[in-house]
Amino acid sequence: MENNGWGGKRNNQTGRPKGTFKEIKKSESIYVRVTAEEKAKIQELAKSSGLSVSQYILEKILN
Known about the structure:
43% of the residues lie in helices and 0% in strands. The protein has three helices and no strands. It is mainly alpha-helical. Helix 2 (36-48) packs across helix 3 (53-62). The longest helix is centred in the middle third of the chain and has 13 residues, at 36-48. The protein has helices at residues 21-24, 36-48, 53-62.
């Protein structure tokens, strides 16, 4: 169906992705409260390790 300004599906659209929301979502987030000093220390340690803060924390926790 051609989109003529009155609705309908455009040629370049494929519709909704297949699968459930959880299957489609690629990553999750965890929020941790820290003080400004703690945050600065974590950022410093991550930078000195050559990692992003997320990568640094994951390495420390999971390995």
